[in-house]
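User: Okay, second chain of the day. Same drill as before: sequence in, structure tokens out.
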Amino acid sequence: FSIFFVSRIKTTTNSTIGVDFSFKELPKITKILHKNKTFLIFLLLNVLVINFTFLNDFLPVIGTQISISDKYIGFLLLFLLLCQMVGHWLAQFCSNMKNIFLFFWIMIGGVLFLLFGRFYSITGIIFLGLAYTLFGVIKIILYSRMQHSLSTNNRLIGLSFYNLFNQFFYGITCLILGF
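Assistant: Same drill. Structure tokens below.
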């Protein structure tokens, strides 16, 4: 299907699809980051919030440690993904949230993750589900605000840098959680 849709894209002779990233763009990225502190703050918060929900990669280990049978670990993943989907749906109702409340809810989400760590059992899954729901809301709002903090001309470069930054921290998070 993707080949069919790509073949239907019409381009003019002066336009290109895709961007060739080179290290020559680094001064432009640093200039964008230096001029737009709001983007940098939302970028950092978004990456940190998203990295909390990378526990999905470790759910089989977590499930066996809290005595969930191997047959039912998939339900744990399904439950957390449903919680995250509910959070994404709820984000539309919270789009006008002030930044101070957003930071407050990030702290509440952190407390929920700490409560899961404290009650590391099947009961603690409730706290983990609430944290995934809350961070689902926060993730959508932060990503939206991060995009809107950039001008249209700089959005592609800023979001490319965000993706690179996100993947880098995902690797570090996996290294930390893997030990």
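The mean pLDDT is 78.

User: Thanks, on to the next one.
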